[in-house]
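Researcher: Quick test of sequence recovery. Tokens follow.
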């Protein structure tokens, strides 16, 4: 692989910037200053460093975003800011969000150019757990909780016209928020359209605030304010791929 491709894949800069960095002696191969940007290196065996920081090669890029309210989860939208716009300084092509959150939903969104991982995590057969912090308009009764946990009719139909109930879910009561709204943690294993809002509607309640806390093994980093993101650690990537 060419050195400039390696450095580009690690988001060091554009091809042009990388040529400049190499010219200025900022890139080393096996401890020696690289002479040219187009030299061939072996990403498996050569030690590549930029500004004396060793780089580990990864073909794909993985970020955790704390999605803010008011931003859409699509890759392009003429008028409204998208989650991909937030990561534009990363200069990574083909980034996509792993699933969608509603425009007013906050919290964990995995954004990556690893299409295969996205496909696997979203596959309906995989039943990856998603945990949401849900602030609701009024308390849930014992019966509401049982209905949510057992699987509930939210209006979806099977091919034969019978109700396609949600899969069993888990409800944890978490107290109240500052406005006095009850807060629950709801774990679901599917990703149907507006699923959490429709589940709460089905028990005569209403979601007033929604935030995703985790998806499979990936847990939202509490240090991230809404609108902030960070690359995943190698451990987080490995756990997601398990
Ligand atoms: N369920 C919803 O209703 N909205 C989301 O954004 C995610 C899950």
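Model:
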């Amino acid at each position: 692989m060419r050195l400039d491709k390696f450095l580009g894949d690690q988001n060091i800069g554009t091809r042009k910037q990388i040529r400049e960095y190499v010219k200025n002696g900022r890139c080393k191969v096996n401890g020696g200053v690289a002479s040219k940007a187009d030299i061939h290196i072996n990403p498996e065996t050569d030690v590549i460093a930029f500004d004396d920081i060793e780089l580990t090669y990864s073909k794909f890029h993985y970020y955790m975003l704390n999605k803010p309210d008011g931003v859409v989860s699509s890759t392009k939208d003429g008028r409204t800011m998208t989650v991909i716009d937030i990561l534009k300084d990363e200069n990574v092509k083909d980034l996509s969000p792993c699933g969608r959150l509603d425009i007013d939903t906050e919290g964990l969104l995995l954004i990556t150019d690893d299409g295969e991982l996205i496909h696997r995590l979203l596959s309906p057969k995989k039943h990856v757990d998603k945990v949401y912090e849900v602030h609701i308009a009024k308390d849930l009764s014992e019966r509401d909780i049982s209905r949510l946990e057992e699987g509930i009719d939210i209006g979806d139909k099977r091919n034969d016209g019978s109700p396609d109930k949600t899969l069993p879910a888990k409800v944890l009561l978490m107290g109240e928020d500052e406005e006095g709204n009850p807060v629950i943690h709801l774990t679901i294993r599917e990703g149907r359209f507006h699923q959490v809002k429709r589940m709460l509607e089905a028990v005569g309640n209403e979601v007033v605030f929604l935030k995703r806390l985790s998806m499979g093994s990936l847990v939202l980093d509490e240090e991230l304010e809404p609108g902030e993101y960070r690359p995943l650690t190698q451990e987080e990537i490995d756990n997601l791929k398990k």
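The longest strand covers residues 207-215.
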